[in-house]
Amino acid sequence: MAVLTTLGQVADRALELGIAVVVGQDGDDLRDQPLSYYGEDPAGALIDMMEEWGAGVRIHPKVDNLLEGYRDLFDRFTASSGGTVVITDVELFEEADGERIRMLVNGEELVWHLEHQTDRYIDTLMVFEITDRLTPRDDTDPRVFVALDDADDELGFIFADPGALSILTRELGIEHA
């Protein structure tokens, strides 16, 4: 097993494992950068790399507006899946027993209970709970949104085959993945 120490090595290995990675225009300039370019925590670095390269979503819980925060978040989930998971028509509403979020996932309605402590933070637990329902339309596609916590317990998701991502995280020395 080769030691993955540069961004180029991580990108190459991710591609080899079938994890969609799109390195930006300046990607060639970054290939030789050490993994620590994204920080000292390998899990956090992997989340940030995958988000920047198009296969991941980091959860940013603080928002200016809840509805716009959720719409932005689920637009990023759609984008990171390359459009194989399409999330649209996100809306918030009240029912007698509390707040709800409604959205279309690949054209099918998904409604979920929300618990907001404040109107400035999205419900990250809800996001974690519904990710198993954010799956590709093609049921032969093994990729899903795999949760990954960084050293600061900040949540991110990487859109990948769980087995392939497990290999990559193990090779990066991420033990809690």
Your description of this structure?
The protein has 6 helices and 6 strands, in the order αααβαβββαββα. It has helices at residues 7-16, 27-30, 42-53, 66-80, 124-130, 162-171; strands spanning 56-58, 87-95, 98-105, 108-113, 144-149, 155-160. The strands form 2 sheets. The protein has a 3-stranded antiparallel sheet. The two termini are 18 Å apart.
Strand content: 15-25%
Give the N-to-C terminal Cα separation: 18 Å
Helix/strand order: HHHEHEEEHEEH
Number of strands: 6
Query: Into which percent range does the helicity of residues fall?
Result: 25-40%
Mean pLDDT, to the nearest integer, reads 90
Largest sheet: 3 strands, antiparallel
Instruction: Name the poorly predicted regions.
Output: none
Kindly summarize this structure in a few lines.
The chain is built from 6 helices and 6 strands; from the N terminus they run αααβαβββαββα.
Key attributes of the depicted protein:
single chain, three-stranded antiparallel beta sheet
Topology record:
Layout: H1 7-16, H2 27-30, H3 42-53, E1 56-58, H4 66-80, E2 87-95, E3 98-105, E4 108-113, H5 124-130, E5 144-149, E6 155-160, H6 162-171
Antiparallel strand pairs: 1-6, 2-3, 3-4, 5-6
